[in-house]
Amino acid sequence: MRRLALLAAAGVTALALGVAIPARALIVFDPNNYVQNVLTAARELQQINNQITSLQNEAQMLINQAKNLANLPYSSLQQFLSSIQRTQQLLAQAQRIAYDVQEIDRAFSTSYAPATSNQSNQLLVANAQARWQNSYAATQDALRVQAGIVGNLDTNRIQTSALVTSSQGATGALQATQAGNQILALQAQQLADLTAAMAAQGRAQSLEAAQRAAAQDQGREQLKRFLTPGQGYQPSNVQMFH
């Protein structure tokens, strides 16, 4: 028994002397510090997520801006210009008294001027023929302009359909705006055609009215000559055009 006690004491002494654990090697768990570290890491992670979301939003904004700045792939400008040019050419081909203020003034100071006693019978007949020819030509011009405008209707229908389709399929604000502007340009071209038709028709009607007024005035002058002795009235040389 004594021997066992000595061995136990020796073992305890050896453990006390040779197996001493340094204090710095001890691990101490601090719950409060752990919680703070977790919260700090969570806040940093949230900031990173916010930055990622912000970058994604900025990237989407750039994509949207690129779409908004994209040009409309379809343009009907050339077709509009061609239609307007055709109508202008028809107006420019007006026969005899054209759309010119000076030319109109000259005509109404000569062939459409009131008949006077100083004018010969031959001049009265020539003026009447000129007025009739002017009215005839103006009527033909009006019909030609109207025919040209009717010819533009099919082109306008095709362009309208294409522009509406492009507007509905626009990917950005610029494309939608450009499609809208082209539709407005189409309406302006149609209004120009309508104006041209009204101008041509009005020209024909005005010349017809002027012809009738001049014919009535010339008729009165011819009747006056017929009733005045010594005027040398010659039925074969005097004609009335209505």
TrEMBL record:
The protein, known as:
P-type conjugative transfer protein TrbJ
Query: Which source organism does the UniProt entry give?
Result: Bradyrhizobium elkanii
Q: Which residues form a coiled coil?
A: 38-72
Q: Provide the alphabetized UniProt keywords.
A: Coiled coil
